[in-house]
Amino acid sequence: MDFENARKAMVDCQLRPNAITDYRILAAMSEIPRENFAPTAKRPLAYLDEDLPLDPVGARKMMEPMYLARLAQLAEIKSSDLVLHIACNTGYGTAVISKFADSVVAVDDNEDFVEMANDSLADLEIGNAAVLAGELKDGLKKEAPFDVIFIEGHVDELPDELFKQLKQGGRLVCVEVENGVPSAVCYVKTASGVSRRVAFNAVVPKLIAFEKQKTFTL
Length: 218
Prior knowledge:
By secondary structure, the chain is of the alpha/beta class. It is built from 6 helices and 9 strands; from the N terminus they run ααββαβαβαββαβββ. The protein has a single domain, classed as Rossmann fold, CATH 3.40.50.150.
């Protein structure tokens, strides 16, 4: 398969028509080989405009390229920013963000994904990103505070711990349900608290680790 042309078609046909105007994101996704982060059998599907299953049961999926790009653009990542990437899967989004952030530290709770991600980042000689194993809801307190927290998926609820790991002025982006519709949201931490802005509808993979805990009453 001609992955180079498939990558160019992804940028031209999926990203540009969907309001991706940040040239750094377009450049990064033109450069990073998405197929390197996919299971071998799934590589021919790497550039389709849909989520890519990463395990046999489809419990974890690589986010559709267009939504990854739109969330990255929503985060307004600066070249001086330290970014925490939560639920990074096999590291494709980490690699993309590394091209326009100062540095990226990523967390995933699947150790096989963590190993694959670090191997792929090393193969591409990306030196400003690393992936660690850990619980997604815990973030990475020892590396905090962060300028940006990027959660790659749909969450039911966010723990306060993650907001504690943001710098003042820091942004957290993820997908939540707004009026029954999955929507991309951006939180901004200020001296007076945390503000929340709904940006656009976004159907992305759900993260089981962020499911709302069921409560029982007698």
